Amino acid sequence: MKSVSAWGRLSHDLHEVQMLNDRTYVAPVLSEHQPGLAYGNGRSYGDVCLNPNGNLWHTIGLNKLINFDEASGRLTCEAGVLLRDIQRLFVPRGWMLPVTPGTQLITVGGAIANDVHGKNHHAVGSFGDHVLGISLARTSGEVLQLNWTSTPALLSATVGGMGLTGLIVTAELQLRSVSSPWLRTETLPYQGLSEFFELADASEDNWEHTVSWIDCLACKTARGIFMRANHMTAQEAAVMPSLKSTLTVHQQKIQRKPLCVPFVPPVSLVNGLTLKPFNMAYYQMQKMKRGFDVAHHEHFSCPLDNLQHWNRMYGPRGFYQYQSVVMRENGQTAVQAMLDAIAASGEGSFLAVLKTFGNRQPKGILSFPQPGVTLALDFPNRGERTLKLFEQLDVIVREAKGRLYTAKDARMPRDLFYAGYPRLPEFLQHRDAGISSAMSRRLMEF
Ligand SMILES: Cc1cc2nc3c(=O)[nH]c(=O)nc-3n(C[C@H](O)[C@H](O)[C@H](O)COP(=O)(O)OP(=O)(O)OC[C@H]3O[C@@H](n4cnc5c(N)ncnc54)[C@H](O)[C@@H]3O)c2cc1C
């Protein structure tokens, strides 16, 4: 038995861990060690990747690339391959994953099972939109080949299905072509949510990546930093000699060993004393970056990957992330109400991210993205105080007909889950009876 935590470090429960290294043995392991759950790289924040006192099928050893078609950009790989490894191998060859979330240190299986989104949802959708097919091991011992033509129902249950329909053994992905790793970026400070929505609307057609950081502790008027970016072609980079030195510096940063938070401090370093000055300093620093610049795609998409184990900063009690999406029509009112509730509660968050999703329906039955606006906030775990605030935020999300993201959740009540995911009954038909997680027991029947 081994103690396993998710990224939020809210619990440290024992699990019977089966390391999967050979894809031909996955089905027998699942049949023999059930009920169980697939575990990728544990970058989900809450209990979606945990199965306390039960089996955990660890996929990180399923790390082989199987086939790549250089002409079409179709890649077949095992499900434990990290997104970072795909990007680092294929970007120099002119291909990249169309969707990367805020960390590249996740597995292909985890990306499919949570149907993760990036900063370009409005342009390309979520991860599942680029999955062509998968092989799925069930605890019955079968390995099924799924694609959108012959088995659309089980595939759409598995995309965003939180690992509850089977274990993804391999996946065929459609990569996109790129001619350089560089992005041309623009940074724009904003005051107030109206300005945020104006910027988001104005950027939708011409900017592939958009995201904003918002200072949820700033009184009365929300203030933030809006960032947008487009991929640069190799020609664009080549004809701009002034960029050469910038690009060299970025390249060196990528090759450097990332910094690390070496141990868990006895108390959270993110607290009432540090939050306000941090947010203020961050805002002022980013404000100075106003205007155009160039960034490596890894730095733009996954800035936190440069600080290993940053989750330890929250101390022994860990932290929650609260990520909601609400419809666009009532988005501004709902986001403002959430910011007001947070300010009134005295519970602060840094790294609050506000972003619009595009007007497109995801492929997964339980996928999180829906047209609207998503707000993601990290909170140190202060017990009852923090949970009381979440209850208030739940009311706002529910009234705004929104939903919470299961990849980040550790405590949402069942009624909010049912209200946010009305296609749940359809999903339940596809569950594998030999698979169960802490989250599925909390939110579903088993
Ligand atoms: C810093 C940071 C930033 C993030 N930013 C974003 C973001 O911008 N957008 C976003 O969408 N998410 C984001 N996330 C969340 C993260 O992308 C997801 O939680 C992702 O699913 C984690 O993948 P993993 O490989 O670590 O899987 P795990 O966390 O280990 O597992 C996640 C789920 O996938 C299932 N699973 C894993 N492997 C398989 C498999 N082979 N077959 C079937 N099921 C499987 C597990 O059972 C579990 O339900 C972020 C997380 C962090 C830590």
Would you give an account of this structure?
This protein has helices at 26-32, 83-90, 108-113, 121-124, 152-158, 193-203, 234-238, 244-255, 272-288, 297-301, 331-345, 384-399, 414-420, 424-428, 438-443; strands spanning 2-4, 13-19, 36-39, 55-58, 65-69, 74-78, 95-96, 131-137, 143-147, 167-174, 176-177, 182-191, 209-215, 223-231, 259-260, 291-296, 307-308, 319-326, 353-357, 372-380, 403-404. With 446 residues, the chain is α+β, with helices and mostly antiparallel strands. The chain has three domains: 2-59 and 434-443, no CATH class; 65-178, Uridine Diphospho-n-acetylenolpyruvylglucosamine Reductase, domain 3 (2-Layer Sandwich); 182-240 and 249-412, Alpha-Beta Plaits (2-Layer Sandwich), CATH 3.30.70.2520. The strands form five sheets. It has an eight-stranded antiparallel β-sheet with strand order 16-12-14-13-19-20-18-21, sandwiched between helices. The protein has a five-stranded antiparallel β-sheet with strand order 5-6-10-8-9. The model has no long low-confidence stretch (mean pLDDT 93). Bound molecules: flavin-adenine dinucleotide. Flavin-adenine dinucleotide binds at residues 7, 37-44, 48-49, 59, 79, 101-103, 106-107, 109-111, 113-114, 116-117, 162-163, 167-168, 304, 407.
